[in-house]
Amino acid sequence: GTVLGGKGKRAGGLVIVFDDVTTLIQAQRDAAWGEVARRLAHEIKNPLTPIQLSAERLRRRYLAHMDAEEAEVLDRATLTIVNQVDAMKKMVNAFSDYARAPNVNLVAMSLNQLIREVLDLYRSGDLKVQIIEQLAAEKDVIEGDAGRLRQLLHNLVKNALEAVKGQSDARIIVSTCVVIGVDTNQIELCVDDNGPGFKPDVLENIFEPYVSTKPKGSGLGLAIVKKIVEEHGGTISAESSQAGGAFIRIRFLLSDENRSLPE
CA-CA to 120 of 20 to 30 Å: which in 3, 21, 62, 97? Predict the structure, then answer.
């Protein structure tokens, strides 16, 4: 603060300036978590390949020459090793995705079109989940990196599919709408499922690295989603819907409304 001098009998005043350092602190935390993820990815990745190769070599060399009972034991043991190594590799890839420096190529693109393309991939399988599109945004052109946004959508849809797994009435709603602001207009992307939703004690830190509601989750899925949103200058929030499921809301700035997509 700064003390202001007074004249004569008039008392001086005091000017106090408050700086909001929330963004700075969050950036420092993200950088620290990124360094942790980078080191973990490096340290974990190195021994995975020789472990997997050794297990596969054991199978090739001994499995065909053992009696049935011993062969079954070796088969189960080595398959467990190989499967767990694959799981670790996926986790390492998640660490790498979170740790890498942003390298986005922003171009004018239709968000609704990208959403349809991603959702069509999931409709082709036997998921027993109703996936509903409610793409109401007529103006949907944003400045985006299609590859990064595709990863964002896959992460959100996969999270929702895992949340509703096993439910007889499982459904996921993906919607868009335009939000009119005073100075800028935005497009809002929402992903809503009818799973168990977020626990209150987890919700506050749901976008922090290594926070997961799944027993075998890496805790990086939503952290990566948040990072991609921030790379595009957007905002993201999470809540439990009135029906109890998880509800993710993302907003991106719309591109110039008079601008058309390139042919």
Answer: 97
